[in-house]
Amino acid sequence: MMEKGFRELTVHIEQAGATASIAVFESPVISQDCAEALQSLGFNVTTLALNEDNVMGLMSTRPDYVLTINFNQYISEVCELLKIPYLAWVIDTPCYPIYDKAINHSHSFTFIYDAAVARRLRQSGVRQVYHLPVAANMERIGQFQYEHQDSSFENDISFVANLTRTEYRTAILPHLSAQTGGCCQRLIDSLDQPEGFLNLSAQLGDELLSAIKQESGYPLAGDHYLSVAEKLAYLLGREHSWRERIDIIQELEKRFSVVVYGNDEWQAQVSSYVGHADHFTQMPGIFQRSKINLNIIRSFVESGLPMRVFDVLSCGGFLVSNDKDDLHRLFTDGKDLVIYRDNQDLLDICAYYLQHDEERRCIAQHGRVTLEKNHTFVQRMTDMLTTVQSELRGEPGAFSRWYR
Q1: H or E segment at 364?
Q2: Does the bond joining 94 to the residue before it have cis omega, within 30 degrees of 0?
Q3: In angstroms, rounded to a whole number, what is the distance separating the alpha carbons of residues 258 and 256?
Q4: CB 169 within 8 A of CB 239
């Protein structure tokens, strides 16, 4: 299938006189990786800052395609007016703009890293939405390995992630009655179960929603493709993940040498926080030099994998992660990485692999090979453009390479 995608793209570029153009709007991460991959495929790529002038400038430049990281309803509107295929690669959860009605424009093609979210949008009537996991730029990481060697990143266990204080904690919880707060707490606790979030919105009845709105005064609202219950489920899920990350790190600190990189919200919660790590200049060194790289996927992410998985493996780092469906579809547990099932399992896994260096190195090496073979930005851009070309020919594009 991958070879067929390359052939179709080559034919398209040749038919366009080798001048097929794509405007890539900049984002903090991966937009440059996408631009480089598209250039290697033969596209004429222009990178643009995401601002009003550049969005409106599409009316005069009229590229053949437009690409953004995450969905932007205003760019979707402009591309619909100009009849330019708009490609959005959604890599965040929640990404609230995808629930705007603009996502169903005929010239919008939305690729989402979480298959569960993409499937739910299809069930709501959004036709041109697909599953596409994130990826790694092996060339960029290879340059870093050659140029940067910093022994200060040599850690037993590292966790690189922000800790985000939630709207529920700051704007809702302080105003809730004991009864309503207790009900929310029980729902948050239910997310300790692996499948807890899947049924959360169904448990949020009108009576509870009304009580939360009335007591807190928080403007709880949904969107065209997002119910109020689903919005509250995300808020409760984010609160659960905030607590979960703190609890796990505190447990690890009792037994191991742990280092946490991220925003300063960590400082008041754990003793192992050491500061911010830059995505491009420092994270690769941390992932390469840490014996164990921890990945705690947030509980409200249903099946997808964050960039951290691909970043760690691309650096040849050893990864230990909690469980999500895509880990089994894209990788092999025990060969490419190691999956933990609960906190005690995580403690046991860390203790074992800190004592078994050769096994740890073999898994990390295998994970990097798997990543380089199957999960590069060139492959993702090929899948994306092949799907869009199929749709433009009137042939429905596949929902996913990994899901039926």
Answers
A1: helix 357-374
A2: yes
A3: 6
A4: yes
How many Cβ atoms sit within 10 Å of the Cβ of residue 169? 15
Coil, strand or helix at 125? coil
H-helix or E-strand containing 159?
A: strand 157-160
Q: List, edge to edge, every strand of the sheet that includes 65-69.
A: 44-48, 21-25, 65-69, 86-90, 108-112, 129-131
Length of the chain: 404
Assigned token pair, 267: 């400082």
Average pLDDT score over residue span 152-156: 89
Q: What's the mean per-residue pLDDT of the chain?
A: 93
* pTM exceeds 0.90 for this model: yes
Summarised one tens digit per residue, pLDDT across range 361-375 is: 999 999 999 999 999
Please give the Cα distance from 364 to 315 (Å, whole number). Answer: 9
209-216: average pLDDT: 97
Dihedral of alpha carbons 97, 99, 104, 108, sign: positive
- What would the mean pLDDT of 135-145 be, rounded to a whole number? 85
Q: Which pLDDT score, from 0 to 100, does residue 32 have?
A: 97
Beta carbons of 118 and 131 less than 8 angstroms apart: yes
